Automatic annotation (TrEMBL):
Annotated SUPFAM superfamilies: Family A G protein-coupled receptor-like
Principal location class: membrane
Localization (cell): Cell projection, Cilium membrane
Highest taxon above the source species: Eukaryota
Biological function: An odorant receptor which affects chemotaxis to the volatile odorant diacetyl. Specifies AWA neuronal cell fate via the odr-7 pathway.
Keywords per UniProt: Cell membrane, Cell projection, Chemotaxis, Cilium, Glycoprotein, Membrane, Olfaction, Receptor, Sensory transduction, Transmembrane, Transmembrane helix
GO biological process terms, semicolon-separated: chemotaxis; olfactory behavior
PANTHER family reported in the protein's UniProt record: 7-TRANSMEMBRANE DOMAIN RECEPTOR C.ELEGANS, SEVEN TM RECEPTOR
Residues in the signal sequence: none
Family statement: Belongs to the nematode receptor-like protein str family.
Organism name: Caenorhabditis brenneri (Nematode worm)
Designated name of the protein: Serpentine receptor class r-10
Molecular function, one GO term: G protein-coupled olfactory receptor activity
């Protein structure tokens, strides 16, 4: 359900209910707005006659599409998901425990999917299930339109860029910029709206609603309208140049010495394809330094502020922090560029700014591959530990002795496998070097001879249209995918089992102390956030990257965005521990309060108290 507090609003309750349904409508209309924009881009690129419908009064018909889908969501929410006495009583205790307010202080829209009877049978709530099905169908329809138009549009843009058509270079570049900005904009609501809501519903389907911790979902959704406009500023060159020019105007309210403005100008200039290597040379040391500071602080908190209930898990936390620092430092030294063209995927390392031999650079590149491949297996070991701890399994003792080293060898072995596969099966060769020579030169303004690389080509398309598979690279890619998939399988299995046990632990008065239960819950949720970060910043982009390669649509110079996204992982990943794990949070904000740095510190400390979900973390 979506709760709206009625105590702080000078509006009648029916009006609050209507505004809540409008909020539902705004959420439901989001993807259809982008569907219309993708249709427009497709018509522009194909020069379809239907483009004229956007240049007349018929434009209002196109704009009516998201309005109608939003209205459908709104009406479904209002008439099929409105408050009722049964649902109010079901949610009463949980809302009081989570927010310390009675449900009468809220207006809500939502529903229950099913009830479990005493005999174990299910009583389905068809009204709410039908509403969910209708809403999902509306969103899926928009997604289908987006995917179809995006694939067609991208293929046509690639063809246009690779041919000497009558379209000017300026027009080609602008079409490409608008398309890439639109792709970035659709990814943002996908990450901040659709994926969390989907996970939310899946947990409900399995009778594992996350209660007060649902507040994190609300917080994540609020970021969408803030972040979504940003790709337009950076990717669309006329807008980017306009901001830079205006920044030097006397009318500009921002100081030219503003660090935020200076950083924007620098990044904007660097995002030109040929300067991306210089941009990464600037950004990688910053992310490495930030990772070092944050992880060093986290290690200090782990060593000095971890309660006894953490047991040997604190060694796993320290191991992860050290791994992330090494990952960031290696990135800062190598400055890897993930690059793709056609069906070819390689990781480039410049040799001009390195004082070591090419052989050593290649070995370090393979070590970078190994660190990437080991990431998920580290969290797999974390999830195994959490499951053993919550289930009180006797195997937990293996983490309290020398056998802990065997557990830590798991990510080492997975990383070594990735490293060996990269070095042995994905090394440079003359054919591949010549294949990417022109594209590397046009993208970075440097010869391929100035780089060392690891990678390969999936297949070649012969003149007669037949496909010539490159088995060596395909086998290496398949083995690497299997390694990551095995880690994900362990994470999902242990995650589901662990959550179910924690959920039961919270609902029963078993011998486990409230403090111990709270810590188990905090560590589990911190771990969930930590696995979500590399999934979003590493695995999802790389999967898209490989998917484009498989369809012969490597994104060439734009591959640099993948490199930048990957570099953010070791900076962001430690953060959930500071906010979710209470002993670290209290130590961090308590330190700020003692030093009385600013009023903002105390405000932030108050905010963290509000984020604390009382149903899961007792005082």
């Amino acid at each position: 359900m979506v709760l709206i507090s009625a105590t702080d609003k000078n509006l009648p309750r029916p009006f609050i209910l209507v505004l809540n349904s409008v909020y539902w409508g705004g959420f439901g209309a989001t993807q259809s707005v982008y569907a219309v924009r993708f249709i427009y881009r497709y018509y522009v690129v194909t020069k379809s006659k239907l483009l004229d419908t956007f240049n007349s009064w018929k434009l209002f018909l196109w704009l009516f599409a998201p309005i109608s889908t939003g209205a459908a969501w709104s009406l479904i929410g209002l008439f099929l998901c409105g408050p009722n006495r049964e649902l109010t009583e079901v949610a009463r205790k949980s809302i009081l425990d989570s927010f310390e307010e009675p449900i009468e202080n809220f207006e809500y829209l939502g529903g229950t999917m099913y009830d479990i009877r005493e005999d174990g049978s299910l009583a389905l709530h068809y009204e709410f299930l039908i509403s969910v099905a209708l809403m999902s169908a509306i969103v899926f329809l928009s997604f289908a339109v987006i995917i179809y138009c995006a694939v067609k549009c991208y293929s046509l843009i690639q063809t246009m860029m690779g041919s000497s058509s009558s379209i000017s270079a300026k027009s080609q570049a602008l079409q490409s910029q608008l398309f890439n900005a639109l792709v970035c904009q659709i990814i943002i609501p996908l990450i901040f709206l659709d994926m969390p809501i989907t996970l939310f519903f899946i947990l409900n389907l399995t009778n594992n609603g996350i209660r007060g911790n649902s507040g994190y979902l609300s917080l994540m959704i609020t970021f969408y309208p803030v972040i979504d406009p940003l790709p337009n500023f950076y990717i669309i060159k006329p807008y980017r140049n306009a901001i830079i020019i205006y920044s030097y105007s006397p009318k500009c309210p921002l100081s030219l010495c503003s660090p935020q403005l200076s950083l924007f100008i620098f990044c904007s200039r660097m995002l030109e394809g040929k300067d991306f290597h210089e941009f990464l040379s600037f950004s990688y040391p910053i992310t490495a330094g930030s990772s070092l500071v944050l992880n060093a602080l986290l290690i200090y908190l782990i060593v000095t502020k971890s309660p006894e209930e953490f047991g040997s898990y604190k060694y796993l936390l320290i191991f992860t922090s050290v791994f992330e620092v090494l990952y960031a430092v290696l990135e800062a030294y190598l400055i890897p560029i993930h690059f793709s063209v056609g069906t070819t995927d390689i990781v480039l390392i410049s040799v001009n700014d390195k004082s070591i031999s090419r052989t050593w650079i290649r070995i370090l590149n393979s070590a970078y591959w190994g660190e990437f491949g080991a990431t998920q297996s580290i969290y797999a070991v974390h999830f195994v530990y959490r499951y053993l701890a919550v289930s009180r399994n006797s195997l937990l003792e293996t983490f309290d002795s020398w056998k802990l080293i065997l557990w830590l060898l798991v990510p080492f072995s997975m990383g070594a496998a990735w490293s060996f596969l990269g070095l042995a099966l994905c090394g440079p060769n003359g054919e591949l070097t010549e294949l990417v020579r022109k594209s590397v030169m046009s993208s970075f303004g440097e010869s391929i001879d100035n780089f060392e690389y690891l990678g390969g080509t999936m297949y070649d398309i012969k003149k007669d249209g037949s496909i010539d598979l490159h088995y060596k690279f395909l086998i290496s890619a398949a083995l690497m995918v299997n390694i990551v998939s095995a880690s994900f399988a362990i994470i999902i299995y242990c995650g589901v089992k662990c959550y179910s046990l924690i959920y039961k632990m919270m609902d029963t008065s078993i011998t486990v102390s409230p403090k111990s239960r709270a810590i188990q819950s905090q560590l589990f949720y911190a771990l969930l956030f930590q696995i979500a970060i590399p999934t979003v910043l590493l695995d999802v982009p790389l999967t898209i990257f490989f998917g484009l390669n498989m369809t012969n649509n490597g994104i060439e110079g734009y591959s640099g965005y993948l490199s930048f996204a990957i570099s953010l992982y070791p900076v962001i990943d430690p953060l959930p521990n500071f906010f979710v794990i209470r002993p670290y949070r209290r130590a961090l904000f308590g330190c700020c309060s003692k030093k009385k740095v600013t009023d903002g510190a105390s405000t932030f400390a108050n905010s963290e108290v509000q984020l604390e979900m009382r149903s899961q973390i007792p005082n």
